Amino acid sequence: MSQRHESTVSEDTGAADRPSAATANDTAGRDRLRPGLLVGALGVVFGDIGTSPIYTLRTVFDPADPHPVPVRAENVYGVVSLVFWSILIIVTVTYVLLAMRTDNDGEGGIMALITLVRRWSAGGRTAAVLAALGIFGAALFFGDSMITPAISVLSAVEGLGVAQPALAKAVVPVTALIIVLLFAFQHRGTASVGRLFGPVMVVWFLTIGACGIGGIGRHPAILRALWPGYALEFLAGHFGIAFFALAAIVLAITGAEALYADLGHFGRRSITGAWLLLVLPACVLSYLGQAALELEAGGHVASPFFLLVPSWGRLPMVALATMATVIASQAVITGAYSVAAQAARIGYLPRLRIAYTSASTPGQIYVPWINWLLLVSVLTLVFAFRSSSALAFAFGMAVTCTITITTLLLGYLAHARWGLPRWLVVLGWTPLLAVDLLFVAANLTKLVRGAWLPLLIGLVVFTVMTTWQRGRQVVATERNRLEGPLREFLDELRDGSNLTTVDGTAVFLDRSKQTVPLALRANVERNRIRHRQIVIVSVETEPVPRVSAGDRIGIDHLDFRDDGVVHITARVGYLESPDVPAALAGLDPHDTEGVLDLDRASYFLSHLELRAAERPAMSRWRTRLFIAISYLSADVADDFRLPRERTVILGELLEV
């Protein structure tokens, strides 16, 4: 699918399935195993999953849970074994071994999977259902982006109550202050602090691993929990307890989707190396150490993660944990910016205002509207739930649904893209899906305890995204009627004896070369003037992250020699920002006979004023929602980097 732009809405059409040479080179560079990339991956990719040991086991054995897990030796062994094998199966197998080999020209994430499904499918109901599931998975990610900062920062600051019980009442206010500061500084970008993220997380993982080893030293027999028999025996022999425990055990794999989403930033080898060499061992050691502490205590331990630390080191550990959870929050916030930008590029959200916070790294962006929406949502969650334990089940629901959708899409692509036989896909993916669905079922039992929240957020965002995509199609149909065929218009233009021709070059943005830009038609039919040189530009977002220099420009001379009309196709990847003047500057003067005066060209845009028709194409509530969403669209001139002093906007009323 490629997206062609003009104003508020645009039309999706097919695009060639071709790799980008520039992207391939970038991917090859990122996929080298380099120490700098390893440290960078530790700072950005693993913040979420690396801070899960703070609250996972505490939540599993929380006596306030309606289905508590009694702290008995067989239960502790079974829980820790389930934690270890869940991490191994879901994170290592599904994401590290499978998902990371399913990239879209080096880029990963749920939006990349949706693009691949559409590209490799032959159409039909199955592909449509899978694409819709993918969109719902992307919608759930926004819920994850709201819950992660709340639960992560809360869980770290709650360590104050362990180190100094008198400070327990300060947990919520301190958490809220940290979150406000975190979002307030987003507009500065992550470049200035990014260099600190990796070293901090290296210290974090070494510290939690060392504390875990100290706990294991108290009860070395806990190492036997690594044997899968304990997990299977716990599930089979104590299913009534184990099933409900899964709703909390899933917290150990939160953040797994970040490994795949950040594939394009660091490459498969760097992420895999960081995971296998440091993150996985450190997390497993921490879980084993906490379990040993539970066994030694012989009962529930209020905060086993912080109690593993000697009393003299607990306040420093709270500070380190707070930094680690801020990093985890930062990663998911920037991930929300990226998902929103990609969704807008492929037509599921309106074009949002995007600020680029790094001159050298295009992926570092800031989306103001998303930032302030997340801030309000996160603060609401903090003050409504007030503890990480209360938020735990909401967190697990978002994660399990996203992982299940990812597994389904990967299974489809294993057959469609990799060419694996159906029987082999069914044989290989059934166990993975069974594990995922078991986690989903367990979390469904926590609906009244907060698991409804991410589903509600996901449903709202899914409705917004699909309504926008459907509304764009309705608008595109109506626009085609108003615009009319371009070839017929050029014939009329050639015969227009009562038109005034003015010197200079006019650039009109349109969706394709099949129809007339509304601004051009209005200029001719209402103002009765035309420019001597007319350039019609269509910006296409290709289903690849970046487009190579040789593929960026396409030229159709139309009637340029006789009437001075030329059509330019400017192609960009879905991770790139369209820059129309820069694209036109790359034209070879020989292709346009050197007569285009682009340095002084005027740019014309058509702005659509939407109004509900008496008999709308969509239901009335969706039509009203679509029109309301349209007001969130960023300014087209800013989005396409058009010079303000030379841009003219002509309005048009459109009923939908």
Automatic annotation (TrEMBL):
<feature type="transmembrane region" description="Helical">
    <location>
        <begin position="365"/>
        <end position="385"/>
    </location>
</feature>
<feature type="transmembrane region" description="Helical">
    <location>
        <begin position="236"/>
        <end position="261"/>
    </location>
</feature>
<feature type="domain" description="K+ potassium transporter integral membrane">
    <location>
        <begin position="38"/>
        <end position="491"/>
    </location>
</feature>
<keyword id="KW-0812">Transmembrane</keyword>
<dbReference type="InterPro" id="IPR053951">
    <property type="entry name" value="K_trans_N"/>
</dbReference>
<keyword id="KW-0769">Symport</keyword>
<feature type="transmembrane region" description="Helical">
    <location>
        <begin position="451"/>
        <end position="468"/>
    </location>
</feature>
<protein>
    <recommendedName>
        <fullName>Probable potassium transport system protein Kup</fullName>
    </recommendedName>
</protein>
<dbReference type="GO" id="GO:0005886">
    <property type="term" value="C:plasma membrane"/>
</dbReference>
<dbReference type="InterPro" id="IPR003855">
    <property type="entry name" value="K+_transporter"/>
</dbReference>
<keyword id="KW-0630">Potassium</keyword>
<feature type="transmembrane region" description="Helical">
    <location>
        <begin position="120"/>
        <end position="142"/>
    </location>
</feature>
<dbReference type="InterPro" id="IPR023051">
    <property type="entry name" value="Kup"/>
</dbReference>
<keyword id="KW-0472">Membrane</keyword>
<dbReference type="GO" id="GO:0015079">
    <property type="term" value="F:potassium ion transmembrane transporter activity"/>
</dbReference>
<keyword id="KW-1003">Cell membrane</keyword>
<dbReference type="GO" id="GO:0015293">
    <property type="term" value="F:symporter activity"/>
</dbReference>
<feature type="transmembrane region" description="Helical">
    <location>
        <begin position="76"/>
        <end position="99"/>
    </location>
</feature>
<feature type="transmembrane region" description="Helical">
    <location>
        <begin position="313"/>
        <end position="344"/>
    </location>
</feature>
<keyword id="KW-0813">Transport</keyword>
<keyword id="KW-0633">Potassium transport</keyword>
<feature type="transmembrane region" description="Helical">
    <location>
        <begin position="273"/>
        <end position="293"/>
    </location>
</feature>
<dbReference type="Pfam" id="PF22776">
    <property type="entry name" value="K_trans_C"/>
</dbReference>
<comment type="similarity">
    <text>Belongs to the HAK/KUP transporter (TC 2.A.72) family.</text>
</comment>
<feature type="region of interest" description="Disordered">
    <location>
        <begin position="1"/>
        <end position="28"/>
    </location>
</feature>
<feature type="transmembrane region" description="Helical">
    <location>
        <begin position="391"/>
        <end position="412"/>
    </location>
</feature>
<dbReference type="Pfam" id="PF02705">
    <property type="entry name" value="K_trans"/>
</dbReference>
<dbReference type="InterPro" id="IPR053952">
    <property type="entry name" value="K_trans_C"/>
</dbReference>
<feature type="domain" description="K+ potassium transporter C-terminal">
    <location>
        <begin position="504"/>
        <end position="653"/>
    </location>
</feature>
<keyword id="KW-0406">Ion transport</keyword>
<feature type="transmembrane region" description="Helical">
    <location>
        <begin position="37"/>
        <end position="56"/>
    </location>
</feature>
<feature type="transmembrane region" description="Helical">
    <location>
        <begin position="162"/>
        <end position="184"/>
    </location>
</feature>
<comment type="function">
    <text>Transport of potassium into the cell. Likely operates as a K(+):H(+) symporter.</text>
</comment>
<feature type="transmembrane region" description="Helical">
    <location>
        <begin position="196"/>
        <end position="216"/>
    </location>
</feature>
<keyword id="KW-1133">Transmembrane helix</keyword>
<feature type="transmembrane region" description="Helical">
    <location>
        <begin position="424"/>
        <end position="445"/>
    </location>
</feature>
